[in-house]
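Trying the structure run again after the queue cleared.
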Amino acid sequence: MIAEKAPYIQSAYDQLQIISQHKHKRMEYEARQKAILDHNQSILEAEQRGREEGIKEGIQEGRELEAVSIALRLIALGMDDATIIGATSLSTEKVKSLRKKP
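Done. Tokens:
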């Protein structure tokens, strides 16, 4: 009934009738459908992995920015490098480079 009202549904129905009559064509159709589903699933999983990695990187960058901010405040208070390194876990080189900033 529905197929009679919409031409594109009728066309799809006709194609399905042809495919279902030929075993080889049906197998090709099913293999193609499986390939499409597998491809879509792999894209979805890749997007999810990318999102998770992006979140982890963002968190790490946020922590580094916070450590740099704390280090700059400690430098302004006159703290020594060892104390700043202990408080922020920044490298010695990073603390020294922050001291050189105007």
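The helical segments are 2-5, 7-21, 23-76, 81-88, 92-100. Worth checking whether this holds up in the mutant runs.
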